[in-house]
Amino acid sequence: MNISVENIDKVNAIITAVVEPADYTEKYEKAIKDAKKKMNMPGFRPGMVPVGLIKKQFGVSILAEEVNKVLQDGLFGYIRENKINMLGEPLPTEDNNNVDLKEGESFTFKFDLAIAPEFEVALTKKDKIDYYNVDVTDQMVENQVEMYRQRGGKYEKVDSYEDNDMIKGVITELDVETPVTAENVVMLPKYFKNDDQKKLFDGVKTNDIVTFNPSVAYDNNEAELTSLLKVEKADALNHKGEFNFQITEITRFVPGPFNQELFDTVFPGGEVKTEADFRAKVKEMIAEQFKKDSDYKFLLDVRKYVTEKIGKLEFPEEKLKKILLANTGDQAKVDAQFDKSIEELTWHLIKEKLVEQNEVKVEDEDVKNMAKEVTRMQFAQYGMLNIPDEYLENSVKEMLKKRETVDNLIDRCIEVKLGVAIKEKVTLKESTVSAEDFNKMFEQ
C-alpha cells in the first residue's frame, strides 16, 4: 500500500492511501471461500454455492469489508511508525464517496488529519509553585477520636437530664376539652428551635413533669409536631397551647472507652498502647489524608501555572468540531462544550509531555495498590476501617475486571507519580493554612 501525507499547515494534513490489488486480493479470495462454506442458498446444497454467484450477489460488500480492514491497518500502522501526533480519528474526505470498488483495481482514499500543536514545556527550580500544608489542630484530632468512640459507644439510662440526652414520656395537652395525649413519646430537647423551651428541661429527672409549648419549641414545624403529638398532619398546627410532659425515661449515649480494643480496631497490630499514642496516630492519619489533598491541589496549581506559561496553543478547531460531532452526534453540545474541550485537550497534551520528560511509568503493582487504597477509602466512609485482606483482595479483583475502572486507576497513578516528580523539579512556595481556608480554595 502506498501512503503519503500532505501537510496543509502546522495542524492540518491530508493522508492519502492507495490500496493495490496485491494488498487485498488474497484476503478477499479467502473471505469468499469462507462465505462459500457457510452459505445456504435455495437450489444448492450447503457449501456448494458457486463462487461466481457469491461474488455476483455479495462480492462488493465482502470486498469493501476486506479493503477497509487493509486500509485501517495500513493507515494506523503508518501513523504509529511515523509518529504522527494525531488528534482524534482520521476523517474521510468527500473524495472517498466516489471510490468505485471493483475486484482487481486500485483504490485511492483520502483522510483529513488533525495534528497536535508543537510546543515545549520545561520545569526547573526557577519555577515557583504554591504548596499548601494543612494545619491539623487539636480540635480536629478530638473530633476524629470522638467519632471512633461513638462507633463503640452505647445508650445508658440515667436519672437526670443533660444536654444531648434523649427523653421518653407521656405528653398531654392542657386547657382543652378533648386533649391530645400520647405515650412513649421520644424527644431530644437539644434540637428545639427555641432556647427558652430548651431551658425548661435543664436538670429534670425521671418522673418529673415539665410544662412546655411544642409549637413554640419546634417553631410550628408541621412534620416535627405530627411526629411528636402522634396526630394527623392536617391537625398538627391546631395545637398551639401548652402540654405536660411526664418523663418516664432518660437515655444518654456514652462513647466507647479508651482501651486496647479501640486502639486495635482503628490501628491493628497492637502498636498503640496508650491514649497519648492513639491521639498521636490519629493526628498522623489526618495529616496523611491532608497531604494527599495538598498534592492534588498542587497538581491543579501546576496545571494552571504551566498552561499560562505556555500560552494559547493553535488547534485545528474546525476538524476537532467535526470529530466531536462524529462522536456525539449533537451539534449544540459540541458548540456549548468546545472551549472546555480545548482546555482539557491542552492539559492532556501538556501532561503527556511532562509524563514523558519525567519518565513516569505505571506498573501493574501500582494499579493494584491504588485499587486497594480506593477500596479502603470507600469502606471507611461507612465506618468499616479494617477490611479483612481476603475481602479486600476480592474487591480489588472485581474492580480490575472493568476496563474503564482500570483506565481511571492508571490515570490516578500517573497523576500521583507526576506530582512527586514535579515537586522535585520546581521550587515549592510552602505555606501552612487552616482546613477551612484550604477547603475554600476548591470553591473558587
Low-pLDDT ranges: none
- Oligomer classification: single chain
The assigned structural class equals alpha+beta
Nearest-integer average pLDDT: 91
Domain unit count: 3
Total helix count?
14
Instruction: Please give the alpha-carbon distance between the first and last residues.
Output: 54 Å
> How would you characterize the largest beta sheet?
5 strands, antiparallel
* Helical content class: 40-55%
Report the portion of residues in β strands: 15-25%
CATH architecture of the largest domain: Orthogonal Bundle
Please write the CATH class name of the largest domain.
Mainly Alpha
**How large is the radius of gyration?**
36 Å
CATH fold label of the largest domain: Trigger factor, domain 2
- How many β-strands, per DSSP? 11
Envelope shape: elongated
SSE order, as H and E? EEHHEEEHEEEHEHHEHHHHHHHEH
Please outline the helices and strands.
Layout lengths: L1 E6 L4 E8 L1 H18 L12 H31 L4 E7 L14 E9 L12 E7 L3 H14 L2 E5 L7 E8 L7 E7 L7 H5 L9 E4 L1 H4 L4 H8 L13 E12 L5 H7 L8 H36 L6 H12 L2 H27 L6 H17 L8 H11 L3 H23 L1 E7 L1 H6 L4
Parallel strand pairs: 5-11
Antiparallel strand pairs: 1-2, 2-4, 3-4, 6-10, 7-8, 7-10, 9-10
Helix pairs in contact: 1-2, 3-8, 8-13, 9-10, 11-12, 11-13
